[in-house]
Amino acid sequence: MYRIDHWIDGRAVASKSGRSGKVFDPATGQVQGEVGFADVTEVDTVVATAKAALPAWRATNLSRRAEIMFHMRELVAANRKEIASLLTKEHGKVLSDALGEVARGLENIEFACGVPNLLKGGYSEQASAGVDVYNIRQPLGVVAGITPFNFPAMVPMWMFANALACGNTFVLKPSEKDPSASMFIAELLKQAGLPDGCFNVVHGDKVAVDRLLEHPDVSAVSFVGSTPIAKYIYETGTKNGKRVQALGGAKNHMLVLPDADLDMAADALVSAAYGSAGERCMAISVVLAVDTIADELAAKVKDRIPNVKVGPGTEPDAEMGPLISAEHRDKVAGYVAGASGEGATVLVDGRDGAPSDGFFLKPSLIDNVKPGMKCYDDEIFGPVLSIVRVSSYEEGLQLINDNLYGNGTAIFTRDGGVARQFQFDVNVGMVGINVPIPVPVSYYSFGGWKASLFGDQHMYGPEGINFFTRSKVVTSRWPDPRTSKVDLGFPQNR
Ligand code: NAD
């Protein structure tokens, strides 16, 4: 049993609240650690620490901030296996997948290395006679990140790299289910030269989150998690005057047209539906198969499923690990159990033959799914792929556009014109054309539409820079004092 402390002012600090949570090894089902949950006083201490560090950090020159990000980039790259093994240990994802998570997170630190360039403003000389106008982007102050269990390293990296590079100080409230990666990251940031107090970690549950949402010294909240909580975070944070971006859940559809290469589509479906046990907000959970190819596509996916190696993430040949908790596994299994009663056809039942130790399920495949069934309407967030049969491109598109969520989607086709039309028509924030999981590279921004995002700035990339800064416009002139006179008219340029 190990203990996970808060990280305050550059060192680990044990919680004294008397409240804590269990950290499980999802591959065995055993408790392996305990994480202290912050009370209001502890959150206040963390925010005060971040506030105290702010003046010196925001005055630190851009070259130095970039240099620290470069150091951090090297440290994360050098320690990628250590971070990945922490992810496997507490989240359960297989090591190869965990290494991918670290690599995608690292991109965001690399992006933040370019902060001197990213914060360049505009300048208009002679906007009026002898008057110049320019804009600068300044940090917001103390900002908070609240993150989900499914990407314990990458999602914090989405947030803190840009936030810190822009001159903010940061408080991270990671998921209480797999909190260790955030502590390792905190140590690396210290080694990279980040001054103490600029990056802090406070562990906990709703108590800690609510205090961050109401704390007068927190200027902004960046959140990633489920839709009901995202909505709550957005409403509560904005009511308290904070800038908030809150990314929520998803139900990502892949539309497969008859001209697609069906083997390629089936490979993509198996990878995108069952990778990381379906616990990805960009996982494909619904395939819209046009009738003429639906039987063939279903058979190809079904044929591939027995080859998916399910086992502990530490096993070198495992491709899919356990789910995060017993409750979550049981909830996911419930969707499979209820599907046939609702009129769907369970082609592969992932409850059969799943390892009994740990929180395992094997991949499930459900055919003849329709809107109105629970397995269609809910975000399952597990290794369950639903097949919805559609008569045409138009019907498939309509289903995607009618869906509550709008995080990611994909189309598989060889017809460039139809793919272009799909890109034009679809009401979803991230679109893949023959790409099943279109997570944008770090120099674009990540975010869904509809119930997948509350707020108006997407995560990381250029919108991340916008989110963590505010614009100030300066109008300046250096007139000859001898020309000065009183003029009560509204300033005009012409
Ligand atoms: P979650 O919403 O349960 O938790 C996210 C964070 O909110 C955690 O830090 C948690 O401690 C906190 N939290 C939970 N309940 C709370 C409450 N009642 N009040 C205040 N704070 C609370 O999400 P999760 O289960 O950790 O993560 C899975 C969800 O995240 C899925 O819905 C998935 O789609 C979503 N997700 C979305 C994206 C995206 O980019 N849109 C990315 C990853 C995950």
What does this structure look like?
The chain folds into two domains: 2-248 and 452-474, 3-Layer(aba) Sandwich (Aldehyde Dehydrogenase, Chain A, domain 1); 252-433, Aldehyde Dehydrogenase, Chain A, domain 2. The protein has 16 helices and 23 strands. The chain has helices at residues 40-59, 62-78, 80-90, 95-112, 115-118, 154-165, 180-191, 206-214, 227-239, 262-274, 291-304, 326-339, 374-377, 393-402, 416-425, 461-467; strands spanning 2-4, 6-8, 11-13, 20-25, 30-36, 123-128, 131-139, 142-146, 169-173, 199-201, 218-224, 243-247, 252-256, 284-290, 345-348, 364-367, 384-390, 405-406, 408-412, 430-433, 449-450, 453-454, 469-477. A seven-stranded mixed sheet has the order 15-16-17-14-13-19-20, sandwiched between helices. Helix 10 links the parallel strand 13 and strand 14 (284-290). Helix 1 (40-59) packs across helix 8 and helix 4 packs parallel to helix 6. The longest helix has 20 residues, at 40-59. The radius of gyration is 25 Å and the shape is globular. The mean pLDDT is 98. The structure holds nicotinamide-adenine-dinucleotide. Nicotinamide-adenine-dinucleotide is lined by residues 146-151, 173, 175-176, 205-206, 209, 224-226, 229, 247-250, 281, 379, 381, 407, 448, 452. Nicotinamide-adenine-dinucleotide binds at residues 146-151, 173, 175-176, 205-206, 209, 224-226, 229, 247-250, 281, 379, 381, 407, 448, 452.
